[in-house]
């Protein structure tokens, strides 16, 4: 392992680069570089390690310029290791350029299949052995990071001294269809709440959808903006200040140019920033695969969508009898073709959606015998990780103590990280 160091805001920072196998079942085969940034508070050299698993999939770890929030709280008790999960950040990247260089769609899909939670756990174990001399470390995971920790508790619990999960207790056995039915229902509820707060925005959304059906409006990335793509800004409904952000987005979208009504460049730029997956290709390509365990997803979000008339793709914005809703955290096959950043990976994503033999990520029997102290924040109103499935998982994992709260949305750790970690650390200690 190669390590460099520097100082940041009263802390020592160590940047580690470690070579790991692409396929941990083939250690002599192709390799990747794994990057992790370890932060140690002055006087904290003897503290135990805690590894941070970012949400995603495909999200890189935090890049702190100043130490605050959840990280500041964690550093009181731990040396914190900010891991860039494989494919992200300064680890070997997996994006549209690097993945398409692998060859045809089949080769691309085969490569991407190595970037799920099970491989991330194996990477973390390789890093732990280098950093701690074999001693177990604690883990903190937000959203998908909690999925990774649950896989960790299944595959290598001996590597963990404690686990803390925020908004990320996954379903252990539910199908992708089951998960999406719940997330659509949660998204519909958030729509109702949003349009109750800002009722004029429902008329504005319908107006925009009708305009896009008749007018060729282009995003800064060059492609035509469609109503179905616009509705994807609803992913913001699941954030703490998401309602307000969307209201400000919709407040003044039109300009008149030469007597013709058009969308303003500012509005198109803001929408483009929300719906483009440039730089986040791994998230889109792998999103459904995080729910695949021994069965193909077959684009479950697309197939289930029609069961929810307010979010149906063919919903008529001119029909007043049915609310016209935004969609949430759902990836669609057409999206990988409309978004120029994703189009190179569309065929590979189709193959991943059809893949029948993804291994299981969670072992219920191992989890039922778990001896690692686990504390989990479960958000009642979470639009991304349904509370019903999280509580079912909480009942399965031995020694897991949940904190069920309606005080936060999915991004609670970004809003009130110090308080949340105070609560979780105390829960884990019993």
From TrEMBL:
Has the keyword Nucleotide-binding been applied to this entry? no
PANTHER family hit by this protein: 2-SUCCINYL-6-HYDROXY-2,4-CYCLOHEXADIENE-1-CARBOXYLATE SYNTHASE, PROLYL AMINOPEPTIDASE
Q: Family membership, please give it.
A: Belongs to the peptidase S33 family.
- Where is the chain membrane-spanning? none
- GO MF terms on file? aminopeptidase activity
Q: Write the record's keywords in alphabetical order, separated by commas.
A: Hydrolase
Q: Which residues form the AB hydrolase-1 domain?
A: 48-238
What is one Gene Ontology biological process annotated in the Swiss-Prot or TrEMBL record? proteolysis
Q: What is this protein called?
A: Alpha/beta fold hydrolase
Q: Where does the source fall among the domains of life?
A: Bacteria
Native source species: Georgenia thermotolerans
């Amino acid at each position: 392992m190669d390590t460099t160091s520097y100082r940041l805001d009263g802390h020592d920072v160590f940047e580690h680069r470690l070579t790991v196998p692409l396929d941990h079942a083939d250690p002599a085969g192709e390799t990747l570089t794994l990057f992790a940034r370890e932060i140690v508070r002055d006087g904290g050299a003897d503290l135990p390690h805690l590894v941070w698993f970012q949400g995603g999939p495909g999200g890189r770890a935090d890049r702190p310029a100043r130490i605050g929030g959840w990280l500041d709280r964690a550093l009181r008790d731990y040396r914190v290791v900010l891991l860039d999960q494989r494919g992200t950040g300064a680890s070997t990247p997996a994006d549209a350029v690097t993945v398409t260089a692998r060859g045809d769609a089949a080769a691309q899909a085969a490569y991407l299949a190595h970037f799920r939670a099970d491989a991330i756990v194996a990477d973390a174990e390789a890093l732990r052995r280098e950093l701690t001399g074999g001693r177990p470390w604690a883990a903190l995971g937000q959203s998908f990071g909690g999925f990774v920790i649950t896989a960790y508790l299944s595959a290598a619990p001996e590597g963990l001294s404690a686990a803390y999960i925020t908004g990320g207790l996954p379903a252990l056995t539910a199908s992708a269809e089951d998960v999406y039915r719940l997330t659509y229902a949660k998204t519909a509820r958030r729509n109702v709440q949003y349009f109750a707060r800002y009722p004029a925005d429902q008329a504005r959304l319908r107006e925009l959808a009708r305009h896009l059906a008749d007018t060729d409006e282009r995003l800064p990335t060059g492609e035509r903006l469609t109503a179905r793509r616009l509705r994807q800004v609803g992913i913001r409904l699941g954030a703490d200040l998401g309602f307000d952000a969307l209201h400000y987005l919709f407040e003044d979208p039109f300009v008149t140019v030469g007597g013709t009504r058009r969308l303003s460049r500012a509005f198109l730029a803001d929408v483009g920033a929300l719906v483009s997956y440039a730089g986040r290709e791994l998230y889109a390509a792998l999103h459904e695969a995080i729910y695949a365990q021994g069965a193909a997803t077959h684009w479950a979000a697309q197939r289930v969508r029609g069961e929810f008339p307010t979010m149906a793709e063919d919903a008529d914005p001119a029909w007043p009898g049915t609310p016209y809703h935004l969609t949430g955290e759902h990836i669609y096959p057409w999206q990988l073709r409309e978004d120029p950043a994703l189009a190179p990976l569309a065929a590979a994503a189709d193959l991943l959606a059809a893949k029948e033999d993804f291994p299981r990520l969670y072992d219920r029997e191992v989890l039922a015998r778990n001896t690692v102290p686990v504390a989990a924040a479960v958000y009642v109103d979470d639009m991304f990780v349904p509370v019903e499935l999280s509580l079912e998982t909480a009942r399965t994992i031995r020694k897991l103590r949940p904190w069920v709260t309606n005080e936060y949305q999915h991004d609670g750790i970004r809003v009130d990280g110090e308080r949340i970690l105070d609560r979780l650390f105390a829960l884990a200690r019993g």
